[in-house]
Specification:
The complex is a heterodimer of chains A (326) and B (130).
Chain A lengths: L1 E4 L7 E7 L2 E7 L2 H10 L8 E11 L9 E6 L2 E6 L4 E5 L4 E7 H4 L2 H16 L6 E3 L1 E6 L2 E6 L6 H10 L3 E4 L3 E6 L2 E5 L5 E3 L16 E2 L5 E5 L1 H5 L6 E12 L5 E6 L1 H11 L8 H15 L3 E6 L3 H20 L1
Parallel strand pairs in A: 3-4, 4-8, 11-18, 18-20
Antiparallel strand pairs in A: 2-3, 5-6, 6-7, 7-8, 9-13, 10-11, 10-12, 13-14, 14-18, 15-17, 16-17, 19-20
Helix pairs in contact in A: 4-8, 6-7
Chain B lengths: L19 E7 L2 E7 L2 H8 L2 H7 L5 E8 L11 E5 L2 E5 L5 E5 L4 E7 L4 H13 L2
Parallel strand pairs in B: 2-3, 3-7
Antiparallel strand pairs in B: 1-2, 4-5, 5-6, 6-7
The chains are: A alpha+beta (326), B alpha/beta (130).
Chain lengths: 326, 130
């Protein structure tokens, strides 16, 4: 049996960090882990939410890589394990992540960037009014565009095409929304873009990359959009519109307005059900969802290539911006 | 798309029904046992150490789920993690117990292969007595 007390371990290294607008008070016994997380943090001047704590103990004697993920939750606690040496406990009420990890996991920057930070924000975010929404987010000249749609609707390929067409990229699969004064802010985590194998038909640069098995078992290209496509990346923006993407067989592009009730229903379907012990977090989350639902929402039905869809969406955004400014 | 709420699947198993419930009040203290497994509920109910913990101020809520959904077990070594009010016992995929001292709650999941006797005589005492 092994025992470690995070309270009684000398967590000599501490740092204030910021992820998706949420302040993070990090304490750990590993300078290597501080270096990794500091590299993924945004400037703390961009902190817009009351924060959370990370208490991370690194077992320098263990070099076990992250194993298969396993998640469970009861009441205010969520547990995640990635093999025997990597155990994470999220205390949502106290906004704290306590974890023991191997030295191999501590120095795995990609794992923190692609999995562990997004998971932490997804679990603890509910207590901070940070709502994970299943949508992509792009920005043009300060105006954000949330792109929602069912899995397979083409959010990721459209995001890449928009990035190649002058939009700044914020996020692909999950966007974290928080309230700020009377508005909302959309945050990305620099997680990689996940493109299904057939995306290579539209983006030839994928040919030099190899497919990987993602967390849900799908084979996909998981790429850093800046490296693979030269996209400009923004960490946050202020969303102006919510677009629901639907594919049609023919090469057409049709925009039709959607009600706030439909938008609300979609966003609510993105979020996890919370247990009664977290009723305050659920109420805070509802307020953020309500703000998202009030965005002008449009259904965008298109067929053809992602580049065609991006061109149509760009014209739509330019037109709508003119209306706003008038 | 409809206006009806459509929740994600309960991947964390937060909402597993726990039809086996035992409750006992002793003054301000409430001792409550909930489980989806009758044998676990009975075992915890009759456990001396759990009773002892439940007799402290604030009582004790025990919610222990038999985890029928966990994948292959990846080890039987016990790891105990302690941080603030939480003390956690982890014994490979499928078995994790958490004691929240401030909220007087004992929560957890037990893998299929773990016997109730082991839970009562070994795992819970190890968790509570550290």
């Amino acid at each position: 049996m092994s025992f470690f007390s995070i309270d009684q371990t000398d967590l000599n290294y501490s740092m204030e960090l910021c992820f998706a607008g949420a302040g993070c008070d990090l304490r750990t016994n590993s300078s290597e882990l501080v270096r990794v997380l500091e590299g993924l943090s945004t400037s703390t001047s961009g902190t817009v939410l009351s924060g959370f704590k990370m208490r991370l103990v690194v077992d320098e004697s263990s070099d076990e890589a992250a194993g298969e993920p396993h998640f469970r939750g009861l009441h205010h606690v969520v547990m995640a394990s990635f093999g025997r040496s990597n155990v994470f406990v999220f205390d949502i009420l106290r906004r704290t992540l306590s974890a023991g990890v191997s030295a191999a996991v501590a120095r795995d920057s990609s794992l923190w960037k692609e999995k562990l930070i997004p998971i932490t924000l997804g679990v603890l975010g509910s207590a901070m009014g940070l709502v994970p929404v299943h949508c992509a987010c792009l920005e043009l000249n300060g105006d954000g565009l949330l792109i929602a749609g069912a899995s397979g609707a083409g959010k990721s390929t459209l995001s890449v095409a928009l990035s190649e067409d002058g939009f700044n990229y914020v996020s692909d699969d999950w966007t974290y929304i928080s309230r700020l004064h009377d508005g909302i802010v959309a945050h990305g985590t620099s997680a990689p873009v996940k493109l299904l194998p057939d995306a290579v038909e539209h983006f030839r640069s994928l040919q030099r990359l190899s497919l990987q098995r993602s967390m849900n078992g799908e084979l996909a290209y998981e790429v850093d959009i800046a490296e693979a496509f030269g996209a400009r990346v923004e960490r946050a923006c202020e969303p102006r519109w919510l677009i629901f993407l639907e594919r049609t067989p023919g090469a057409e592009a049709v925009f039709t307005p959607m009600s706030s009730a439909e938008a609300r229903s979609y966003v609510k379907s993105s979020v996890e059900r919370l247990p009664p012990q977290l009723h305050e977090a659920a109420a805070t989350r509802e307020q953020t969802i309500e703000r998202v639902a009030m965005l002008p929402s449009w259904r965008f039905r298109y067929g053809g290539t992602p580049q065609f869809g991006a061109k149509e969406l760009r014209e739509f955004v330019v037109h709508r911006r003119q209306e706003i400014h008038v | 798309m409809t206006n009806e709420r459509c929740w994600h699947p309960d991947l964390l198993r937060r909402f597993v029904p726990t039809p086996y419930v035992f409750s006992k009040c002793d003054g301000p203290n409430r001792f409550l046992v909930e489980s989806n497994d009758l044998e676990i509920a009975l075992g915890v109910r009759h456990s001396d150490i759990v009773h002892c913990e439940g007799n402290r101020a604030g009582g004790l809520l025990c919610k222990v789920i038999r985890d029928h959904w966990a994948g292959p077990i990846d080890g039987s070594d016990i790891t105990i993690v302690s941080d603030g009010f939480l003390r956690i016992l982890y014994m490979g995929r499928g078995t994790i117990l958490i004691h929240d001292r401030e909220r007087s709650e004992l929560l957890g999941f037990i893998a299929r292969r773990v016997q109730v006797q082991e839970l009562i005589s070994s795992l819970i005492p190890t968790l509570l007595n550290g």
